[in-house]
Design a protein that fits this description.
Order of helices and strands: HEEHEEEEEHEHEEEEEEEEE
CATH superfamily: Immunoglobulins
Strand content: over 45%
Radius of gyration: 22 Å
Helix content: 10-25%
Shape: globular
Distance between the termini: 56 Å
Number of helices: 4
CATH architecture: Sandwich
Structural class: alpha+beta
Length: 268
């Protein structure tokens, strides 16, 4: 009888150790790294890396598990939200964000990420002092303003509630003409438009996909970067950036890109 109780106790102890180890491993797998630098003129340039799966439906099916991906990333300086990013599985694995905003003087930048399962991950970083932000207006000043014109994108318009889309050169959208990898296509966006939010779309062979959305605060600057997934070996991948302005109008800019490496269908 004594041996039976000892065996049961040992089994419970080992199970607890294994469970705790699994929990620690899971915590270690999902981390947030924050780097931020404040310029002399009060502009903060920040980078956020969230280590987390961004499974497409086919990824999850192949791995025999539920789909795992981040749904939102909230960035705060002190107690004030400066930016919120809504993400989908079409954002690259381990989302890496670059963005710019005007400081409120706080010392720390904090990040809270939520995933599809309802888990919450947190991280923060000290905002370091830096030099003058020489690049703040360089992209903006290089923009050539042309006459705005209405454009027809039925699928995007339908997603946004059948709004009128205005094609404009006041949005700088930079994507490689030829991307080397379908899983990490860099996208850079800048604009001097006063924006409520920005929505990024990708049009591929199997339709239009909503990739990510940035919800701005009054501290935000529309200068940001992200990496996304695209269908490979398809010549007509179109990246669309739509800004909802503070004036209530919707502005759009588009570029085409080709992914050099053949790969898989990006459905789901």
């Amino acid at each position: 009888m004594g041996r039976s109780y000892f065996s049961v106790g040992l089994l419970v102890l080992l199970s607890t150790v294994v469970l705790m180890g699994a929990q620690e491993t899971q915590k270690a797998e999902h981390t947030i790294k924050v780097k931020a630098k404040r310029s002399e003129n009060g502009v903060v340039s920040a980078k956020v890396l969230v280590t987390h799966e961004m499974d497409l439906a086919m990824d999850a099916k192949h791995k025999g598990r539920e789909q795992r991906y981040l749904t939102s990333i909230i960035i705060k300086e002190g107690e004030e939200t400066v930016l919120r990013v809504e993400t989908t599985p079409y954002v690259s694995q381990n989302p890496f964000l670059k963005f710019v905003y005007v400081t409120n003087g706080s010392e720390y930048l904090s990040v809270v990420a939520h995933n599809r399962s309802g888990d919450i991950f947190k991280g923060e970083g000290l905002i370091k002092a830096g030099g003058h932000d020489k690049s703040k207006f360089s992209v903006w000043h290089s923009l050539k303003l042309k006459t705005e014109k209405k454009t027809n994108h039925p699928k995007i318009k339908e997603t946004l509630g059948n709004v009128t889309l205005i094609e404009t050169d006041e949005i700088s959208l930079i994507v490689p003409e030829v991307a080397s990898s379908e899983m990490t296509v860099p996208v850079n966006i800048a604009s001097h438009l006063k924006a409520k939010r920005l929505i990024l779309f990708a049009t591929e062979r199997d339709g239009v996909k909503r990739v990510a959305e940035w919800i701005f605060s009054d501290k935000s600057v529309v200068r940001l970067s992200i990496k996304i997934k695209l269908a490979a070996s398809h010549p007509d991948n179109i990246i669309s950036a739509v800004i909802e302005g503070e004036d209530g109008r919707y502005y759009i800019a588009e570029v085409k890109t080709f992914v050099a490496l053949a790969g898989r269908n990006m459905g789901g």
